[in-house]
Every structure is written in C-alpha cells, then in structure tokens.
Amino acid sequence: MNNIEFINDAGFDRWRDVVQLVGELENWVLSENDLHVWKTGYGKDNFNLIVAVDSKSNKTVGSITSAFYVPVDGSEPLVTVGMFFVCPSHRGTGLGG
Prior knowledge:
With 97 residues, the chain is of the alpha+beta class. The protein has helices at residues 12-26, 34-42; strands spanning 4-7, 47-54, 59-69, 78-86. The chain is globular, with a radius of gyration of 14 Å. It comes from Panagrolaimus sp. JU765.
C-alpha cells in the first residue's frame, strides 16, 4: 500500500474520477450530481467521501463513502457505508482490507 494517500471529505474533482471509474470498471450507474444530492440530503457534516490516491501518479484508485442519518420519526440513527471500490490495479495490495 505504498504511495497511497487518503483524502477525507474529497471534493468534486475526485468524485468525478470515482463516477468515471466505477462506471467503466463495474457498470455502476452514478451521476456527477449525486455528490451534491447526498451532501444536501444527509447534511454537509453527515456525508463523507474518502478517496484513495496513488501519490506517484495522482490518480484516484479507490473510494468509500459514509453517511449518518437521523430519522425524523425518532427511531435509531443509521450509519451507512457505500461506494466501496478499489481499482483492479490496486486490488490485493491491502488497500481496502
């Protein structure tokens, strides 16, 4: 896992990288607008995109998201994890494990 840096609360440019990668490599259907929708829906402080970047190439090679949701009906809050992805070139290296 050498040369990997993590960006907490990554911005739109890295989100765009993730949308492109998971679309091409995994056939996931996402929109570039989803980041804005999720941050607005969950609240800026309740949604996080963490991106793994290869520091040698500055390329996005992985991602994961987390969201914290407090239901309006008073039921238990919920934490979700999603968008777990590692590029095939970096699988088996310990990234994401």
